[in-house]
Amino acid sequence: MALALQTFATVKDAGAALKAAGARYLGGGTLVVRAANEGDVSISGFIRSTEPALSIIRISGGEVRIGASVTMAAVARHPDLATLAHAARAVGGPAIRNMASVGGNLFAPTPYGDFTVALLALDATVSTDDGELPIETFLAKRESNHAIVTAVGFTLPKEGGFRFLKVSRVKPKGISVLSIATVLEHAPDGTVSSARIALGCMADRPIRARAAEKALIGRELTSEGIAPALAVARDGTSPRTDPIASAWYRNEVLPVHLGRLLLA
Amino acid sequence: MAKVPVQFTLNGAEKAEFIDSGTTLLHALRDKIGDTSPKGGCHQGTCGACSVIIDGELRLSCLTLAETCNGATIATTTGLAEGGVLHPLQCAFLDAFATQCGFCTPGMIMAAKVLLDQTPNPSREDVVEALSGNICRCTGYEPIIQAVLSAARSNSQNAA
């Protein structure tokens, strides 16, 4: 039997309806309709909002605000978001990218959620109908947060400052073995002055590689310079074993791929 | 459960139905309207057999709720042939033996149609990327890729 859909013109009204037990917010449908099709009996119905602000990308003075309903395809083709296009295209195939939303990707369980890895490296802010949260805080409590995500915001990185890598066995569309996003800044002498490294598939949700970030500060991006960061890349990780890769394999290849990304 | 109205244009014809709220577009097309060209494969958004074109974009009808398509223009493989003449992509699939069991074919063809509508002269890489969300367990993909490239060449020759 189909699960009823309730559509609201405003996020506020949708938020009120979402308080009902078992109600799930419908974004692009690639997560919640999939779960319903699979027989997730915890879902009692779908709630969505058609508020126009949810579908808008705003870029002003290097500050980006992407509405939660904006699709991966819309991000990938936006001329001012070319930096992020690679990360947006890492999500699914063409049809999925025409449906999957930025807001929904925040809830995608491992091994999905590649775009959220990019947002974590960008130190994004997640806006909800209940206020704003740093993305790391949001991700830590995403299952218990019943607010509706309305947008994500971040500062566009400097030219060449953002790097993204998705490792998959099937090309061009494969589920992640792991994904890595980095945002690096450099001092005038070329050494790393600031580093944010986000990892996908290395825990049950995207995480920061804090030890590796710390080990990169003051180092040059050479094989020798990044060696200390690669040595601690696995600190704090707890990858899962799934049909794509074992936890052991993910841990083994993480430093290899992080090294390739940093030296690219 | 209360029925809700849905209305959209399907392959150029206006369609209006009352459906159960929350019905997927795939279910509405196949079981209410009678267009069985989109196939229900995985119902998980993985296989692409249910692919249709909604307002010019390739989408998965198994993960799309029919109510969200009110006012939309939807295209399926059923609407491709005109006056009994197969679409160039359909001819190319037959000529290249790009269809064996046939279950994936409607989704493949719709994915290829979006590609050729947007990129009339695609590279092989473009074709592989465009079909990357569609799974085939028979052909090994190569005949499908060749069929799409052949259809593109055929379109270019006809346009010249």
Overview of this structure, please?
Chain A has 264 residues and is an alpha+beta fold. Chain A is 31% helix and 25% strand. Chain A folds into three domains: 5-49; 53-155, Uridine Diphospho-n-acetylenolpyruvylglucosamine Reductase, domain 3; 162-263, CO dehydrogenase flavoprotein, C-terminal domain (Enolase-like, domain 1), CATH 3.30.390.50. In chain A, strand 4 and strand 5 (63-67) form a beta hairpin. Chain B is of the alpha+beta class and 160 residues long. Chain B has two domains: 3-79, Ubiquitin-like (UB roll); 88-159, [2Fe-2S]-binding domain (DNA polymerase, domain 1, Orthogonal Bundle). Chain B has helices spanning 25-33, 88-95, 105-118, 124-130, 142-159, and strands at 3-10, 13-20, 51-54, 57-60, 73-75. Chain B has a five-stranded mixed beta sheet, sandwiched between helices. In chain B, helix 2 packs across helix 5 (142-159). The longest helix of chain B has 18 residues, at 142-159. The radius of gyration of chain B is 16 Å and the shape is globular. The A-B interface holds A 1-5, 7, 26, 28-30, 33-34, 36-38, 45-46, 48, 73, 92-96, 98-99, 172-173 and B 1, 19-24, 27, 43-45, 48, 51, 57-60, 62-65, 67-68, 111, 114, 128-130, 132-134.
